[in-house]
Amino acid sequence: MAHHVTVMTRTGCHLCEVAEQDIERICGELGVAWSAQDVDSDPEWRAEYGDRVPVILIDDAEHGYWRVEEDRLRKALA
């Protein structure tokens, strides 16, 4: 099954920028599709994830937040 990673992000968030760079690199190496979504574009997302951005989702299930744990992410996507 092909996975999809989503980074829940926010404009002006430094940790979000770092997480997106990490996800882009890791997913690029593994051939996994990924996207970024702005939590402030949807009230439900803001309520769910707003205090913890960046939040990493794998196949719409929460995997982690604030920082990308590379080893854990690679295992989840393997």
Automatic annotation (TrEMBL):
Pfam families reported in the protein's UniProt record: Glrx-like
Protein name: Glutaredoxin family protein
